[in-house]
Design a protein that fits this description.
Elements lengths: L1 H5 L17 H15 L3 H18 L2 H18 L2 H17 L1
């Protein structure tokens, strides 16, 4: 289900929130990255999370950017790459503090 929802990234609906607080294609990609990183499929997880961050940045939507960055940071953390996880999560912290 997450893969189907995440496919909205390539459709005309990639910036749609459907009444939610965050862009749903980004939320789906971040959740998919979370699940994949739990399974140890780190390359896939990071790829999905990076796509989520790109979409969130293109939309310039702070809460959605945080969601994408959190998913990416989790994937790096679970992989054991603490320097990258820290850098990504600090970017997310900026959105928390600013917005």
């Amino acid at each position: 289900m997450l893969e189907r929802n995440a496919s909205l990234l390539v459709a005309d609906l990639r910036f749609e929130r459907f009444g939610a607080a965050v862009i749903q294609s980004v939320a789906a990609k971040a959740a998919l990255a979370d699940a994949l990183s739990e399974l140890g499929r780190f390359d896939e997880a990071i790829s999905h999370a990076e796509a989520a961050v790109r979409t969130a940045e293109a939309a310039d939507h702070p809460l959605t950017q945080y969601v994408g960055l959190f998913g990416l940071g989790q994937a790096h953390f679970r992989r054991g790459d603490l320097p990258r996880a820290t850098a990504v999560l600090e970017r997310g912290l900026f959105f928390c503090r600013t917005w």
